[in-house]
Design brief:
Layout: H1 7-11, H2 14-23, E1 26-30, E2 36-40, H3 43-51, E3 55-56, H4 66-69, H5 93-102, H6 107-128, E4 133-135, H7 136-141, H8 143-153, H9 160-170, H10 180-201, H11 207-219, H12 223-253, H13 256-267, H14 272-285, E5 294-296, E6 300-302, E7 305-307, E8 312-315, H15 317-320, H16 355-372, E9 377-378, E10 400-402
Parallel strand pairs: 2-8
Antiparallel strand pairs: 1-2, 3-5, 4-10, 5-8, 6-7, 9-10
Length: 408
């Protein structure tokens, strides 16, 4: 049995997941937090579990002791009264709240946002292009989705750097001061309450104003729900994209033949490989390693394993997306892979609402990087790179690169 959740595992979890898929596909383990949970690692089981309505998203169904319940979500969300969001609720509330925000993430709405994402990508590269070096996480992958989601929510430009600071604390996963995440969540909660109040008096053409309008038109969205919704859109909408861009750039830099294929296609004005390529990067080393928490509401069976009511279940997307029973040569990065029904965005009623926006940001970021900095290369041995701790997400702490300095 391989060691799970240690430093070596964080660097490359895929061999351990391959072992689990073969020998213990539904495996009960004790997590670093002390909470016991089932890990589901095979593709077919994962897909079934993600769509199984008997697996609730509501932490109240967890039968663990009360101190364990506080360890199964985002740090600080319980104390800040931000629990009533899409990742923690079931139908009918989930259906109602999801319907309210889904209009903001239709492919058409997202396409209208494309010029802004391009402008952000270019502005960020402008800031470091002349230096000949950068940390792609800190200087590019991190700020891009923060500013984008702030624009969508309607956070004024002058307040967006505060959001950037709070968000930065939230993704450090234990790398910052003790209690820092909960403090940042609390500050964000206070800010969102004030912003919702402001937008009620001066609505704009943004997501928070839209939520307030829907509420005023009888859709019944409480102030708490509106704040929790804005919070989870920010939280779910930025760290995933940070990791998509960071992991994606890293995979391209360590697979030069694939990266050259993509650069060649882009130079010829062909975006087809970029589109299949971003999906393949999501499958190969995606931003979300484990789907967020689920809790059995009744006894059930997954992959022949009996699971008791109240047990937490974690679907390991990273393991399912490398399952040889579903994907040919799953450990090979192939940007032109067509048969690619990966689970990077989840599956079922909790399928990622922001998938069209994530695709747009991922494609724009990688295209702009490869086009504007064509000789981009790693400035550090891959073995020396550090991956962020944390159970759900998979992403690099830093990604130092070098390139020929570009004059803007």
């Amino acid at each position: 049995m391989p060691e799970l959740f240690d430093w070596e595992f964080a660097t490359n979890p895929y061999p351990a997941y391959a072992w689990l898929r073969e020998h213990a596909p539904v495996h009960r383990t004790t997590l670093p937090s002390g909470v016991e949970a089932w890990l589901v690692t095979r593709y077919a089981d994962a897909r079934q579990a993600l769509a199984d309505q008997r697996l609730s998203k509501n932490p109240d169904h967890h039968d663990g002791p009360s101190h364990a319940k506080g360890k199964t979500g985002i740090p600080g969300e319980r104390k800040a009264d931000l629990m009533t969001h899409l990742l923690n609720i079931d139908p009918p509330d989930h259906t109602r709240l999801r319907r309210l925000v889904s209009k903001a993430f239709t492919p058409r709405t997202v396409a209208e946002f494309a010029p802004r994402v391009q402008e952000l990508a270019d502005d960020l590269i402008d800031r470091f292009a002349a230096n000949g070096e950068a940390d792609l996480i800190h200087d590019f992958a991190f700020p891009l989705p923060i500013y984008a989601i702030c624009d969508l929510l309607g956070v004024p430009r002058e307040d967006q750097d505060d959001f950037r600071d709070w968000a930065g604390m939230m993704i450090r996963h234990g790398g910052g001061p003790r209690g820092g995440v909960a403090r940042s969540v609390k500050k964000m909660r206070a800010y969102l309450a004030e912003l919702i109040h402001r937008k009620r008096n001066e609505p704009g053409d943004d997501l928070i104003s839209g939520l307030i309008r829907a509420s005023d038109e009888g859709e019944h969205l409480t102030e708490n729900e509106a704040a929790a919704m804005a919070f989870i859109l920010l939280f779910a909408g930025f760290e995933t994209t940070v990791n998509l861009v960071g992991n994606g750039a890293y995979a391209l830099l360590t697979h030069p033949e694939q990266r050259e294929r993509l650069q060649q296609a882009l130079a010829e004005g062909d975006t087809g490989l970029l589109e299949t390529g971003v999906e393949e990067l999501l499958r190969f080393d995606g931003p979300v390693e484990l789907a967020t928490w689920r809790f059995a509401t009744e006894p059930l069976s997954i992959g022949g394993q009996d699971i008791a009511a109240g047990d937490p279940v974690l679907v390991v997307l990273a393991a399912a997306d490398r399952d040889p029973a579903r994907f040919t040569d799953p450990d090979i990065l192939d940007l032109s892979r067509r048969d690619n029904q990966h689970l990077g965005y989840g599956h079922g009623i909790h399928y990622c609402l922001g998938a069209p926006l994530a695709r747009l940001e991922g494609q724009t970021a990688l295209r702009t990087l490869l086009t504007r900095l064509p000789d981009l290369r790693l400035a550090q041995d891959p073995a020396d790179l550090r991956w962020r701790g944390g159970l759900i997400m998979r992403g690099l702490r830093t990604l130092p690169v070098e390139f020929t300095p570009q004059q803007n």
